[in-house]
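The aim of this short unit is practical: by the end, you should be able to scan a pair of folded records and say something sensible about each. We start with the first protein, listed as its amino acid sequence and then its structure tokens.
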Amino acid sequence: MFLKRINTSLAMASLVFALSACQQTPENSGITPETATNKTDDFKTYDAASFFATTSMYGSSISHDGSAVLVSSDESGIYNAYRIPLDGSEKQALTKSTTDSTYAESWFPKDDRIIVSADLGGNELNHVYVRELDGKLVDLTPGEALRAEFFGWHENQDHFYVLTTERDPRFFDLYLYSTKDYSREMIFQNDDGFDLSDVSKDANWLALTKANSSADSDIFLVDLSQETATPKLIAGDEEESIAYSIYTFSADNERLLYGSNKGSEFTHVMNYSLTDGSHSVDFEADWDVIFSYFSKNGKYQVNGINQDAQTVLSITEVATGKEVTMPTLPPGDLRGVNFTADETEMVFYLNSDTSPSNLYHHKIGSDKVVQLSNNGNPKIKQAHLVAGETRRFKSFDGLEIPGILYKPKQAETEKVPAIVWIHGGPGGQSRFGYSAMIQHLVNNGYAIFMINNRGSSGYGKTFFHLDDKRHGEDDLQDVVYNKKYLQSLDWVDENKIGVMGGSYGGFLTMAAMTFTQEFDVGINIVGVTNWVRTLESIPPYWEAFKQALYDEMGDPATDKKRLHSISPVFFGHQVTKPVLVVQGANDPRVLQVESDDMVAAIREAGNHVEYVLFEDEGHGFSKKENRIVASERYLKFLKEFLN
């Protein structure tokens, strides 16, 4: 995505938890005990539809009676909410949208109603809905041009929290809803541009962050039990730039866990006492701790460390401090760990480069794990896929740049073309995990290096800020030196190297094609090409961190000259190699006009550019049929211009 979030941890549903690989296959797994090796006698290539015949699934809310998991799944072609029984019986579609994706948020804690969210055509103006027991959807946040988010449950289980921008499109206010009739009351009016991060289960405390710059933020607490809800600063430093973030309130409503990189390159977990105001270190590691949360009653604490593009997970029993022992699992990373209300069972996903996420059920303390989904395509042999490897290379100034390299099977017998893949952001990170698009290209003979250029998250705050107000300069040189690294590999065709990426990665792709002559082709997916316009047209609900974004990228009111100089659209005549541009018409972050103008500028100079516009998509493609079309178009373009 195009955005570097300063104060917010990664969404729990998308987190990757890495455990040690092992050989045993769990009960009912449906996994063939083979690994993705570099050699296979019956190797074959597959089309995009085969790779996208897999199902993407996430979400791990457990029903009130502990009988089922609520998930979001795109098996119908777009995301809908599904009920997956823990006893392994047939899943049930709870929503059946055929136009716009509907995302599962949570079960109700006392019955089988669910909360879901959806936008229109990818416009990101999400509304929050309740699916009633009869299947009817009730919009809890009706209106135009507003964005709403589900924010959690009150511990009395009769109320829940929702954020909405209906009063002011720039800021989220906090509402408390009744489960009985959906009546509500505003419990915090956000007039000062805070980022609302978490609310205690008893509704007495609200944790807020305030971004001062891309490297500095503060934490505030609001005592909601008081008649006047005034934010109180609890973590901030006027003399030093420190990035703070909120993790969670404790289950007993007595502590706040928050992140801090004070005195360290990496973020560690701090503990703030709501009773005496003391601060203490709760958990730290040699990498960023990107999340920390508790099971419902606080028996277990889950911490995740972002270690070299994978998240190392620990589950600790709070009372004893002992780490929970997991049973033997097949190779892969864990995602979406969640516990039943009585804290005796858990669900989680396993994911790897060569297998999409599958849902599992485990009774804590037992040696049994049951697989509840089979989301892979049985027609694709896992041995025909490729697992990535961590690699590093030195850039123009000697800085070591990390990334993930995928070597296609074809490279065992011939030199292959290669592509530098650039993640979104700025400040994102390429990570291990199944990608139908990446596997499709690698399977068809293209090496992929997923670069984590300077400015990427996960490698310390110094590395993270090396690109501040130098975007399109030093990070672009990292991309160029990534090409040089690929040329040093004896199995890569040094004369056939392209570049591609999405969002911010789309910008760097266009910058590489515009301001250098290094790459033979470029594929720009929803990429920024006019920074002045993009920064002037950011969605209003980004207001809380707009200043931090300006601090990193530049303020269009004062840094217009520099922003103009790095914007490819003004220099389209310099593009001399083939380019493919892919855009969603409803994109609120990178407007369609960005891609329209970029394509026009290249065509005006008489150079080759192809344009794919999805009328029913936004910033990224939620519909499976569109993802298939896009992936096939990438392959067709590469076969024509890079082979």
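Turning to the second protein, read its sequence before its tokens, just as you did above.
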Amino acid sequence: MIPQEYIQEVVRRNDIEEVIGQYVQLRRRGRTATGLCPFHNEKTPSFVVYPDTQSFYCFGCGAAGDVINFVRKYNNLGYVEAVKQLAGRAGMPLPEEDDRESRARQRLLEINRCAARYFYENLNAKTPEAAMARRYWKEKRGLSDAAIRRFGLGYAPEDFGGLLHYLKRRGFSEEELETSGLVKRSAKGNLYDIFRHRVMVPIIDVRGAIIAFGGRVLDDSKPKYINSPETMVYHKSRTLFALNIAKKSKNRRYILCEGYMDVISMHEAGFDTAVCACGTALTPEQAKLLSEYADEVVLSYDSDEAGQKATERSLGILGSTTLKVSVLSYQGAKDPDEFIKKYGRERFEMLLNGTANPTEFQLKKSKAKYDLRSDDGRLSYIREAIEILTERGVSPTARDVYAGRLADETGVSKQAILSQLNGALQAAARRSYRKEQRDLSKEGIASDIRVPYTSSGESALGAANAARQLAVAMLQDPEQVPYVRARLDMSTVLVPEMQRALEAIFRCVDEHLPLNQTSLQQMLDEAAFQQLAHGQAYNHDIRLQRQDIDMYLDRLQTAKPISEQVKGMSDGQLEATLQTSAKRRAPAPPRQTNNDIPTYFVKQ
């Protein structure tokens, strides 16, 4: 593994604010810098960079760590790969290291590259099967040889062991091949290819590496599509198909399609910013990735019921980004590919330039559900339309325009509709305020601590928070570690994550490692590390002192069950402990107030 001294030096030479500023627009606020979190969708910044401790923390999603962890998480890299990337940035020579994870990732990417070559070669083979596959791509899909090469399209022959033997001959082990998701082991223990007699589409990440595959049947048999499972290099929720090509375009308006085939057809027709989600539905991570390359997104899903539902889901996710969103509406074809083949590229571009906004799409869909010739139908449509118009992102001007349209469509006066709309807006504002107050009431230093079910109550939560505060105090001042260590009874630490965090702090001291996030995140699992990062972020402007440490140690001991506290005590010690406990439980004496009036009348 890479020596600790080297890792610490990489962190020292890569200022975290400077590195993160290349990916996130940061604004300085005193000793910290804030911005929109790159790891979840948000409109109000909750992502904070702490130059003092060379760390970051997101109060929205809990993402945390040092500069290595940021680069690793942002670029979907292994730990060693992230260290190497930052070392290169700092002009440091790469260390001699033996990293299993990095080697495994590289081997997996090499397997995928060889598999893509195998599929491409089989597409161009002189066999009846290959000829059938070529006809599918060229005649049924209307693709040119250039498009086939650009996307690396291929064909998997109807052979249970063709790819398996091809990859074995290139030195890959059975264990590596099983990990790739390209082969499976049967009930009898034999390996076989999972892609057979299918046209193949490689899935390529933004860096140009082949990370997975999608395979489609050449007829209407089921299942129509088979996709690679998730692996250490492929996470479908964070991948957009064809983004590696679309990102090269100068056009910042992207077209979000439903599937691989739609995207490839779009590119063939000259629409070079077409992409699609890998998986069944758009995810917040994919929306965030899209917002890094696009300013505007046009939803171009199929016109069937499934496509319309996908449009609604995507609108909800994209609504929390800064992207301008519109919806493509077309008739006379089931999908964009069919529309282009039927009416031509120019007609599709006209549709693209006249796309409807999300409000327009939702109102049109709502109107189609009701019979406006009946009173009940008109009232139901108005009620649903008003719900749509009260959503965030609809401007007052747009509401006025749509209220006029609703009046024309239903025969109800515009004034009556506006009155109902204003009432709905006020009700929505009240709901939003109540939700905000509920959310605020849940915030705080101990809000994210989950104590074990066997240790409930406020005292347990207070003890759990005390343990975390002790860890923070030691991170702030490593000289306090011997003092805390000598007085801390680990059996009073209720939360397993905090037990692991405290033990890691002691281990750092024992091994003479710097007591910082860089050292600790290599020793801890994500849950334990997040507990530390959370406490450190909340205490950023508070310097914990020796008296604070004593208070938290006492709180831990106080929360310990009496049965545990009295073990090994003498009779005198036991009596003193029980008297102290009784005093704590005794009710406070009644307050004496002037004129003997009830205490709740007296100003506090």
